[in-house]
Amino acid sequence: MPLNAQQLNTATFAELLADTHHTAVHLEMRDVYAVGDETDDYAAFLRTGVPNLDPARSFWPQWMPLVKGAVARGVVMRRARIVSEPVTDYIRYEHAITPLNLQAGEDVRWLPRRRASDIPLPGNDFWLLDGKLVQFHHFTGTGDWATNGKERTADPAAAALCATAFETVWERGVPHEKYTV
Predict the structure, then answer these.
(1) Neighbours of 124 (CB within 10 A)
(2) Over the stretch 8-59, which tens digit does the pLDDT of each residue have?
(3) CA distances from 162 to 96, 141, 153 (A)
(4) Rounded to whole angstroms, how far apart are CA atoms 14 and 159?
(5) Is the distance from CB of 139 to CB of 149 less than 8 angstroms?
(6) Which stretches make up the DUF6879 domain (predicted)?
(7) Residue 20, CA distances (Å) to 64, 70, 105, 165 in order
(8) What are the angstrom distances between the C-alpha of 146 and each of 11, 20, 141?
(9) What contacts 177, CB < 8 A, 6 or more positions away?
(10) Phi and psi of 153, rounded to 5°?
C-alpha cells in the first residue's frame, strides 16, 4: 500500500523498504563515514587489518533481514560507491566488509572519482526506492549523521536526477569482486 505524505516523513527505512516493489538503489559518495554503529568494528579493522565478517555483529543483524526480505519479494537492490584513489582507510574497511552486503543480496559496484567528473550528481548520498522516493542522507564534515540526517522527497525532478546519476555511476562502476583497494 503506498505511503501517504505523513507516513513518508514518519516511516522507518524498514517500512519504506517493505513498501518497495521493484528497485532500491543506494549511492554513496563520501570517502569517510564515522557513524556510531561501525565505530568498534572500524577501530578493530584499523588495528588488525582484518574485517569482522560476522553477520551477527554490529548493524548487520538489523540490515541483513531487511535486504533478504526485499530481495525475496523481487526487489533488486544495488549499491554504488564513488571513491577517491588511493582510497582512505575507511574505504578499505568498507570494501573489506562488502561481502556481507553481497551475502544479504545486494549487488555492489565501485567507481573511481576521477571517472565521475562529468556526471551530474546530487549533493548528498541517497537511497532511491522504486524510482520515485528519494531518501537523502546528511552527514557532518567528519562523517557522522547530521542532526536531522535524513530528508525524504517524492519530487519527480529529484527522483529523476538521482535515477540518472545512479544509473550512470552503475554503468561505469567496477563490480565489487573486480575492484581492488
Answers:
(1) 19
(2) 789 999 999 999 999 999 999 999 998 888 899 999 999 999 999 999 988 8
(3) 27, 22, 11
(4) 20
(5) yes
(6) 12-180
(7) 16, 8, 15, 20
(8) 19, 26, 9
(9) none
(10) -150, 150
Question: Which residue reads 560476522 in cell numbers?
Answer: 54
Grid coordinates belonging to 36:
556510531
Contact 105/17 with Cβ under 8 angstroms?
Answer: no
The C-alpha cell that represents 56 in the structure block: 551477527
Please state the pTM of the whole predicted model: 0.95
Note the pLDDT of residue 36.
Answer: 82
Q: How many Cα atoms occupy the beta-carbon half-sphere of 69 within 13 Å? A: 13
Q: What is the mean pLDDT of residues 138-146?
A: 92
Distance of CA 45 to the CA centre of its chain: 20
Q: Which residues pair with 139 in a beta bridge?
A: 145
